[in-house]
Design brief:
- There is one protein chain.
- The chain is an alpha/beta fold and about 325 residues long.
- It has two domains: about 180 residues, Rossmann fold (3-Layer(aba) Sandwich); about 120 residues, Response regulator (Rossmann fold, 3-Layer(aba) Sandwich), CATH 3.40.50.
- Strands 2-1-3-4-5-11 form a six-stranded parallel sheet, with helices on both faces. The protein has a six-stranded mixed sheet with strand order 7-6-8-9-10-12, sandwiched between helices.
- α11 links the parallel β9 and β10.
- α3 runs parallel beside α12 and α4 runs parallel beside α5.
- The longest helix is centred in the C-terminal third of the chain and has 18 residues.
- The protein is elongated, with a radius of gyration of 20 Å.
- The two termini are about 30 Å apart.
- InterPro entries: Bact_Solute-Bind_Prot2, Peripla_BP_I, SBP_2_dom.
- This is Sugar ABC transporter substrate-binding protein.
Length: about 325
């Protein structure tokens, strides 16, 4: 068995945000995530006495969620824990994935809650079945209420405030905040936080599954209101579309974004994106596996009822050269 002394050492390093992959690091996994039907038949992977299911709302192949997956799978390898990763953007399907994991009697469950109400019954049923649950990324306000032992992520309202403060300090006066997933409470919290710190903020709803239309909608908003001098994207893929839309509109609006990918790294370097709000999602995959291992083998809890914060951090021209290699290998 993985010794508690060794585990405590890994946990201390991981909590400090310093645990990464081996020298080569994991590469982004673009394979399709399991569908609800395949999840029913899937048995947890071998790899140790503890079996954990990670069920997120991210789409298969999404750059952000690939990094979460990399973190969870690397933690499984490091700690000898069996980790199965599933994802589905439809809240009903995500709930069924959780139900499937409960039926398989997994030893631990990690869940992102973009739509908490849709997942409440499934998560509470897992807790009733004696399965420890850790929530990640979104749904922080409902985590303890649903019975989770911890939440790992960034407080979205505070992150939005930080972005708004930075844009205001950059001399911007009117902000367009682009929401790309209807019903995702975290995205509304980001824009609300930005408004608190910045002041004059207009929100725009687009659909991330239709990037061409999203770009057209951003372009239209900039053309109809030339006073907009900043755009805050809530996703790295939307950020690239916002940069293109500003160019098409002949707008001088400067783009900032949440989250990193290769395009955002390049855009920060060339100045077309001012900064990225980095929630260090690799930790959102890695740390819950550490915490579940400690909980199951040593009765440890983390956070004292408060969320374990992985962000916000900010990536701009001052630190992009340090962060870029990590983003390239799939750990930032």
């Amino acid at each position: 068995m993985f010794s508690l002394k060794k585990l405590a050492g890994v946990a201390a390093i991981a909590t400090a945000g310093l645990v990464l992959a081996a020298c080569s690091g994991p590469t982004a996994d673009n394979s399709k995530s399991n569908s609800p039907s395949s999840a029913t038949a899937a048995a947890p992977n071998a790899g140790g006495p503890l079996k954990v299911a990670v069920v997120t709302h991210g789409s298969a192949g999404d750059a952000f969620w690939n990094v979460v997956k990399n973190g969870a799978e690397q933690a499984g390898k490091d700690l000898n824990v069996g980790v199965d990763y599933f994802s589905d953007g439809d809240p009903g399907n995500q709930a069924r994935l959780i139900d499937n994991a409960v039926a398989q009697k997994v030893g631990g469950l990690v869940v992102s809650m973009a739509n908490p109400q849709a997942l409440q019954t499934s998560i509470q049923n897992a807790v009733k079945a004696g399965i420890p649950v850790i929530t990640i990324n979104s749904g922080e306000d409902f985590s303890a209420q649903f019975g989770a032992i911890a939440h790992v992520g960034q407080s979205e309202g505070l992150a939005g405030q930080g972005a708004g403060q930075r844009l205001k300090a950059a001399g911007k006066t009117k902000l367009l905040c682009v929401i790309h997933e209807a019903g995702n409470i975290g995205q509304n919290q980001r824009c609300d936080g930005a408004k608190q710190a910045f002041g004059d903020v207009t929100t725009l709803q687009v659909d991330i599954s239709n990037p061409t239309d999203a770009q057209a909608r951003i372009r239209g908003a900039l053309q109809s209101d030339p006073s907009i001098d900043a755009v805050l994207a809530l996703n790295s893929q939307v950020a690239a579309r916002a940069v293109a839309a500003a160019k098409e509109a002949g707008s001088k609006a400067q783009v900032a974004t949440f989250d990193l990918n290769a395009d955002v790294v390049a855009a920060i370097k060339d100045g077309s994106i001012l900064f990225a709000v980095d929630q260090q999602q690799y930790e959102q995959g890695y740390l819950p596996i550490v915490f579940l291992k400690l909980y199951k083998e040593n009765g440890n809890t983390i956070g004292g009822g408060k969320p374990v914060q992985t962000g916000p951090g900010f990536v701009d021209k001052t630190n992009i050269d340090t962060i870029a290699p990590y983003a390239q290998r799939g750990t930032r």
